């Protein structure tokens, strides 16, 4: 299956997308395009098969954020530069259940890492944060995401991945080639 | 005219002729009336001037989107509208990700600060595979 990943476009076929999770389906069908084009709340990237280049098989949404330095505990800010902490939010990632098990999730998160590196190079960002469903924490941990302590036990789990770790992975990948 | 000046102007090389391109467009009747109305509104008489100004505006819009800037109009009451023009989005860099606020509680902030200020973790095999992908 030859898959391409690109930014969501207005006439992409999202209506039949079904990842088995209604909020994630609903976001793609009702909000992703508006949020991207009109509200500037998040940019959605979609995975499409070359033979059906409008049919969305999976997606993820990115945004940037920052944490004001004065909100961070003083005992830790000494190890940080004297600025607000810039970060990328991996807001959503989902794969249509009919295409699960074919490595689409891996392809999507790989693209998210590449974009993160580009953003870090172009405008700077220190880490990537995601809000993982509890049953998906292990999947993100496989890529090195570390749970951030302090969340309640019911809602999603915030997870952290340092951009320096992604850069080190890139160096490791280059050395292996 | 003083002789020296006269001499100088005699020796001056003729300015190179700038080759001008012709631009012809088939407009639908509705587009034609829009052009006419805009020309009248802007008190323009020539199509060349009209095209030149339109080009300058379009060029500016493209350069702004290329830099990741959004184009906004703001009313006197502060109501803002963002220009959404699909062709312009094609030139917008992927790095132009929107900025959002994330809610953090104190414990999460402490954990985040500890992680961000510490040594980065070693990449996992899956992460190395992903960036090689």
Properties at a glance:
heterodimer; A: 177 residues; alpha+beta; Aminopeptidase; 7 strands; 30% strand; globular; B: 133 residues; 2 strands
Helix/strand-derived category of chain B reads mainly alpha
Number of domains of chain B: 1
Write down the CATH class of chain A.
Answer: Alpha Beta
Compressed to H and E, one letter per element, the order of chain A equals EHEEHEHEHEEH
Q: What name does the CATH topology of chain A carry?
A: Aminopeptidase
This entry's quaternary arrangement is: heterodimer
The largest sheet of chain A, given as strand count, sense and whether it forms a barrel, is: 7 strands, mixed
Radius of gyration of chain A: 17 Å
H-E string of chain B: HHHEEHHH
Cα end-to-end separation of chain B: 75 Å
| Unreliable parts of chain A | none
The overall average pLDDT of chain A, rounded, is: 90
Helical run tally of chain A: 5
Helical content class of chain A: 25-40%
Strand order in the largest sheet of chain A: 1-2-3-4-5-7-6
Rounded mean pLDDT of chain B is 82
Largest sheet of chain B: 2 strands, antiparallel
Shape of chain B: elongated
Q: How much of the sequence of chain A is in beta strands?
A: 25-35%
Poorly predicted sequence stretches spanning 5 or more consecutive residues of chain B: none
């Amino acid at each position: 299956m030859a898959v391409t990943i690109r930014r969501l476009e207005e006439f992409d076929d999202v209506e039949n997308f079904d990842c088995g999770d209604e909020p994630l389906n609903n976001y793609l069908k009702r909000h992703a395009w508006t949020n991207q084009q009109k509200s500037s709340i998040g940019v959605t990237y979609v995975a499409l098969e070359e033979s059906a280049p409008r049919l969305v098989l999976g997606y993820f949404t990115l945004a940037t954020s920052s944490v004001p330095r004065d909100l961070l505990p003083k005992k830790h800010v000494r190890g940080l530069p004297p600025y607000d902490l810039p970060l990328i939010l991996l807001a959503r990632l989902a794969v249509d259940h009919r295409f699960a098990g074919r490595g689409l999730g891996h392809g999507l998160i790989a693209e998210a890492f590449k974009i993160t590196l580009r953003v870090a190079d172009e405008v700077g960002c220190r880490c990537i944060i995601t809000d993982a469903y509890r049953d998906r924490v292990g999947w993100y941990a496989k890529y090195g995401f570390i749970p951030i302590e302090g969340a309640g036990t019911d809602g999603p789990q915030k997870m952290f991945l340092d951009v320096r770790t992604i850069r080190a992975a890139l160096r490791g990948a280059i050395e292996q080639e | 005219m003083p002789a020296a000046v006269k001499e100088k102007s005699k020796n001056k090389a003729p300015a190179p002729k700038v080759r001008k391109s012709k631009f012809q467009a088939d407009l639908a009747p509705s587009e034609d009336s829009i052009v006419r109305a805009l020309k009248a509104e802007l008190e323009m008489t020539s199509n060349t001037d009209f095209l030149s100004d339109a080009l300058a505006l379009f060029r500016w819009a493209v350069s702004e989107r290329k830099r990741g800037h959004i184009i906004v109009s703001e009313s006197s009451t502060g109501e803002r509208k963002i220009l959404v023009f699909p062709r312009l989005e094609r030139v917008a860099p992927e790095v132009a990700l929107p900025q959002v606020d994330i809610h953090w509680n104190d414990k999460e902030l402490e954990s985040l600060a500890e992680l961000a200020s510490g040594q980065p973790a070693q990449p996992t095999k899956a992460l190395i595979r992903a960036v090689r992908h």
